[in-house]
Amino acid sequence: MTTSLAILGVVFAVAIALGLLAKRGHTMTLEQWSVGGRGFGSIFVFLLMAGEIYTTFTFLGGSGWAYGKGAPALYILCYLTLAYSLSYFLLPAIWRYSQGRRLISQADFFISKYESPALGMLVSVVGVAALIPYLVLQLKGLGIIVSEASYGAISPTAAIWSGTAALIGYVVVSGVRGSAWTAALKDVMILVIVVAMGIYLPLHYYGGYGAMFEAIDHAKPGLLTLPAAGMSQSWFISTVLLTSVGVYTWPQFFAGVYTARGENVFRKNAVVLPLYQLVVLFVFFVGFAASLVVPGLTGPDADLSLFRVAKLAFAPWAVGMIGGAGLLTALVPGSMLLITAATILGKNVFGALAPSSSEHTIGIVARAMVPVLALFALYLTLQGGQAIVMLLLMGYNVVTQLFPALVLSFGHKPRISAKAALSGILAGELTVAAITLSGTTIARLAPALPQVVKDLNIGIVALAVNVAVIALVTLVTRRPVPAQQRPATVPAA
Questions:
Q1: What is the pTM assigned to this prediction?
Q2: Could you read off the pLDDT of 14-69 as tens digits, one per residue?
Q3: How many CB atoms lie under 10 A from the CB of residue 216?
Q4: Residue 135 contacts residue 338 (beta carbons within 8 Å)
Q5: Kind and range of the H or E element at 333?
């Protein structure tokens, strides 16, 4: 236990040091603090994007779902791979448009494209609303990881408080550069540790992958296949499609795009990132291995499966290394989420309310919002919360409502009006709110429908409402084309 604590402490200290040292040689203007002066190359952009994708979810949520739900967890592997394919076309287009316009937030993009401050304000609200549960996810995961890796010596509450303080410190000082530097350490550790665990545990407890899956299939029939109802094939496909288009509507990805020095950065990463995605497969192997070794974890407790099996199989020093890597999966994305949300509130909310403010003043306000947002997320985390995957899916349902307006904005000018975009987003978000608060499913809304329809991800309903409202508003507000005068006809002879 002492060894594990010492390793956790060292990793934590190194992460903070890297985050603080990243500021050296740079004056932290708003642009430098939020988008790194737009000078990041392929490696740093890769680290930021991988840092945003491989979070505490990689450690806990992926293994927890493999442990408790089995085959449906594979949607995680599929949706990110599809999202990377989309990035090859989507991200260069966003980057090209941002050049020369000094965009630093997602809302800036929509304001500029649609020439609508009102739409920008709505996008800002949506962005922050989606980022908060995502940040709660990181803090929740941080508490679990540190408590488990320290063998209970550090409580989840103490870990969450310490992690929040660290985030506030190096985010305020170094901004996005601190995130990129700590991401370098995180990606090396997570790659080595997760792959090693995914190989060792099936071999150690079962003798190999084939024997592991045979044992699971015998002990838990149906765990390795999609169920006929509920998380069935239609749920799987609809969830993959919904979340894959939602990946790049997260506000922090726009900030990551703005940091790049050229558009080819994204094309290179679109080739490499799917290979890195294979790390998730080894996370699943850990969850599957744990399903028979540490049985009995139900509900949110399934997120504990990785550490429960790790503490049985490995020495304390190894558990400390696993915990250190897990710690970084919370700190790196947590820092980007804080930077993005604070930038939105400073630039697009405060800046809109006080348009005469200088960039320096806006930068001060943005940094001042970091502790406010962090403490608010900490409060929500300590109040409890849902399982890690469910928190992630909730955020996706919120942020995906921006996708139609984003896609329809490409081209010389947007294909829809600002009014249509605003109406669609608002309708979609109200639908998400109603669904979330009521716990409604398609099966409840229309029990007579075929099972394949009832099992669709409920987020599809909100997106369909969004698109329908966009089409309706566009149809109603479209200006009639003046009738052209017909040329004079020659009288018949």
A1: 0.87
A2: 999 998 998 888 888 988 898 888 778 777 787 777 666 677 877 788 899 899 99
A3: 18
A4: yes
A5: helix 316-343
Amino acid at 132: I
Lookup: tokens for 59: 């450690």
When pLDDT is cut at 50, 70 and 90, the band that residue 275 belongs to is confident
Please compute, for residue 218, the number of CA atoms within 13 A of its CA located in the half-sphere on the CB side: 7
Tokens 């020095």 correspond to: 261
Per-residue pLDDT reduced to its tens digit, 418-436: 999 999 999 999 998 888 7
* Half-sphere CA count of 354, side-chain side, radius 13 A: 10
- Domains of the chain listed by start with CATH number: 2-400 (1.20.1730.10)
C-alpha 367 chain-centroid distance: 22
In three-state secondary structure terms, 480 is coil
Model confidence over 217-265: pLDDT tens digits? 999 999 999 998 889 999 999 999 988 888 889 898 888 888 888 888 8
Could you tell me if 322 and 307 are in contact, meaning their C-beta atoms sit under 8 angstroms apart? yes
- How far from the centroid of its chain's Cα atoms is residue 243's Cα? 10
**Cβ count within 10 A of residue 113:** 23
